[in-house]
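thought: user wants a sequence for this fold. calling inverse folding tool.
action: design(structure=
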């Protein structure tokens, strides 16, 4: 019980830990691979691939996990997409 209260105050006062640069890079790499898979013409055009990536919005969603560990889920938002 005490640990739960301490974790609550820690999250409330300090906030979530920043996303590690390796996690950001892995998400970016995965998204670019998916873009190339969906749009094969981007495979040999790195400038167009980067432009397509920049048009997307990458959002991080924190999902509470078991045993007090939180998971990060990366969500893509397309230009003009309405939030539900």
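)
observation: tool returned 84 residues.
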């Amino acid at each position: 019980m005490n640990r739960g209260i301490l974790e609550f105050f820690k999250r409330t006062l300090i906030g979530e830990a920043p996303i590690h640069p390796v996690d950001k890079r892995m998400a970016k790499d995965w998204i670019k691979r998916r873009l190339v898979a969906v749009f094969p013409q981007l495979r040999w055009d790195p400038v167009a691939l980067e432009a397509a990536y920049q048009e997307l919005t990458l959002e991080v969603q924190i999902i509470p996990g078991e045993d007090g560990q939180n998971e990060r889920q990366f969500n893509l938002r397309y230009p003009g997409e309405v939030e539900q």
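thought: summarizing for user.
answer: Here is the designed sequence. Helices lie at 2-14, 21-38, 46-55.
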